[in-house]
Amino acid sequence: MRILEIYGAVTALAILMLIVASLARADANLLSLETALEQAVNVSPLVAAAYANADVRRGELNESGIWPNPHIEVEVGNRIAREGGPSGWQTQAYAISQALPIGGRLTERRRVSEFQLSAAHKQVVLAVLGVEYQAAVAFHQLQWAIGRADLALAQLQQAKHFHKVAEKRSQAGDLSVRETLRLQLLLHEAEASLDDALRTQRDAELHLLTLLAFQPGEMFDLPPLTLPAMPVDIELLQQLQDNHPALAAAQQQQFAAMAQRDEVNAERIPDLELRLGRDNEMFDGRRGASYSVGLQVELPLWSNGKGRLQAKDAEVRRAQDELRLVQTEAQQRLRQSHSQLTRLLDRIQRHQLNVLARAEQVLAMTERGYNAGELTLTELIDATQAQWRAAQEQLDLLLLAQQQDTELRRALGKTVSSQVEHRS
Known about the structure:
- The structure is a single chain.
- This protein is of the alpha+beta class.
- It has one domain (40-78, 87-412): Outer membrane efflux proteins (OEP) (Up-down Bundle), CATH 1.20.1600.
- 71% of the residues lie in helices and 10% in strands.
- It is built from eleven helices and four strands.
- A hairpin with a 2-residue loop joins strand 3 and strand 4.
- Helix 5 (105-171) runs antiparallel to helix 6.
- The two termini are 69 Å apart.
C-alpha cells in the first residue's frame, strides 16, 4: 500500500512538471506587442537609414567651425643661378598663406550643423514611430485573424452539432427535407467561413513575419485581442503633443534655415588671406634672403551675395510655413484619433451589453425550446446566425479600437521601442 502511495505521488509530480513545462514553452512562444515593435524597429531599413542620416549630420558638425587649412608654396627655378650663382635649379622662394575668416560665418555654419543634427535625431524618432505603427497594425490584424478563425471553428462545431441532431430527427421522421437542407447549408457556410478565416490568418502571419524579419516557419503565439484603455482628456493630450518629434524636427529645420541665412549674410564680408613669403635673391653678387608680408581680400565687384541672401530668406519663410502646417495636421490627427477611439470604446460597451449578450441569451433559449419541440428549426437557425454576426461584429470593433489606439499613440509621438534611447 505504501508503494502504491509513493507511485501515485511520483506520477502526480511528473504530470505537474509536464504541465509547468508546457506552460513555460507557451510563455516562451508568446509574442507581446512590445517585443514585436522592438524587433520591427531593430530590423527596419527605414530606421537604419535615419540613423545613417544622423551620422552624416554628426560628421558635418565635427567638420564645421574649423578654420580652412593653410597653403604652403615652394618655388624652384634657375633665376638665382643665372644671376651669378652655380648653374642648375635651386629653391628660390618659400611662402605660407592662411585665410582669415571674419564676419562670424564659421560660427553660423556650426549652428546650422547643430540644428540639422538635432532635426536628424527627431527624424529617427519619426522613423521609429512609422515602423512601430506598421508593426502594431499588422500585430492587431493577426490577432483579429486568429480570433476570427477561432470563432469560425466554434461556429463550425456548433453547426456540426445541429447537423447531427437533424440527422437523428430526419431518421425518426421529425424533420422535413427542407429543414434538413437548411441545416446542411448552415454547415457548409460554416466550413467556407473557416476556410476564409484560415487563409486570412495565414496572410496576416506572413505580413507580420516580413516586418519582423522572422523565418516563414518560425512559430509564435499572440495574446488575444483585447479592449484598449480609455484615453485621457483631449486637453491633456494636446499638452503632451508639444513634444511630438515631427513638431520638433520642423522647428529645428526652421532654426537651421535661419542660421543658414545668417551664414550667407556673414559670407558677404569677404575673408582676408595673409601671406608670409621668403625669397632668395642676389645682393651685390651674394645670395641673401628677403621677406614679405601680403594681405589679400576679395573685391565684390560683380556679386555681393544679395541674391543668395534673398533665397535664404525665402527658405526661412518656407520652413516657418511647413512648421505651421505640421502643427495644424498634428492637432487635427490628435483630435480625430481621440474622438474616434472614445466613440468606438462606447460603441463596444453598448454592443457587448445590448447585442452580443442578448444574442447569446436568445440562442440559449432557442436551443432549449427547439430541443423541447416548442420552436421551429427556422427560429434556431436565425438565432444562431444572429449570435454569429454579433460575435464577429464584436471582434471587428475590437480591431478598429486597437487601430485607433495605435493611431492615437502615433499622433502623440509616443514610441514603445527603447532603441531610440540606446542609439541616439
